[in-house]
Design a protein that fits this description.
296 residues; alpha/beta; 8-stranded mixed beta sheet
């Protein structure tokens, strides 16, 4: 199916929009990237969903992709990022009169969980230590949530300790700079974290496109500052990579069970499921789940 692609930077936010010539589905898909990444990371899936008749919008948070820096990266928090994601959800609702489907990868999956807690329940707010963005909402914000190798439901203590064992020098540099940028300082380090052999992007290509990232976003996602929503009525699909070195399958399975989400393990896939050789089959899993749920 033919489609058009629009690249814009407006109000400080980059948007990459794929619009099919003939829409088969009315509900737009909003894609939120994870740490170090930008809207560019969704290209393979945006192409597929456009071919299937879905409009999709991928955004880059400030200081990521082609979105200009609005606050020094080392001082960015999840609460700050949430403000921009919440604004995009509201913008889509006003434009399409539809609650979007939100697909969030890694930290984007954490932000999706924040949407489910803080936007779908307007009585809650991120605490003041978590950033200046006080996002608000009313009612259920999303038609569905698809979490792609997301941060676990309750904390990131295990993965943080895993980071330190994988790359002790990089972990020390992170503490000294208050950023996590040193974790992706070489193509080899980036590839080890995100992809497996045979991925549709090379280590060099991946490394060249990654950007800086805050350390606070990881440190704040822990029990003193975060707890997941106790209940959500939003349909959820949770996808885990069977060969993910950052998030273990048991951690992901327990988190999906906490939310009552439908859970799928992609065998042999690393953390960046949308860049692995199985990217098409994984996208088809999302498509089929949405159709089965009557969301479109």
């Amino acid at each position: 199916m033919p489609y058009t692609i629009a690249h814009t930077v407006q109000d400080g936010i980059q948007r990459i929009v794929y619009t099919p010539e003939v829409k088969r589905f009315e509900t737009p898909i909003l894609m939120q990237h994870g740490m170090w990444h930008g809207a560019w990371c969704w290209q393979s899936w945006q192409e597929l969903f456009a071919e299937w008749g879905w409009e999709s919008i991928a955004i880059s948070l400030p200081g990521h992709g082609q979105s200009p820096v609005q606050r020094p990266i080392r001082w960015c928090t999840l609460g700050y990022y949430l403000k921009f994601l919440a604004a995009e959800i509201e913008r889509l609702q006003q434009r399409t009169f539809q609650r979007p489907i939100l697909i969030g990868h890694s930290m984007g999956g954490a932000l999706t969980q924040w949407v489910l807690k803080y936007i779908s329940d307007p009585s809650l707010r991120p605490c003041s230590g978590q950033g200046s963005g006080q996002a608000t909402g009313s009612g259920q914000a999303l038609s569905a949530a698809v979490l792609v190798a997301p941060w676990t439901s309750h904390n990131m203590l295990g993965p943080v300790f895993r980071f330190s064992r994988l790359d002790p020098i990089g972990f020390l540099l992170c503490i000294l700079t208050l950023t996590t940028t040193p974790n992706v300082r070489t193509p080899q380090r980036a590839a080890k974290m995100f992809i497996t052999e045979g991925a549709i992007i090379t280590p060099e290509e991946l490394h060249a496109r990654l950007g800086p990232e805050s350390l606070w976003v990881l440190l704040q996602y822990n029990p003193l500052l975060w707890s997941p929503a106790k209940r959500t009525h939003t349909p959820m699909l949770w996808l885990a990579g069977g060969s993910d070195v950052l998030l273990t399958e048991p951690e992901e399975r327990r988190s999906a069970a906490y939310y009552g989400a439908e859970y799928v393990v992609v065998d042999g896939a690393g953390h960046n499921l949308m860049m692995e050789r199985s990217y098409r089959q994984t996208a088809e899993t999302i498509r089929d789940w949405l159709i089965k749920k009557g969301i479109g």
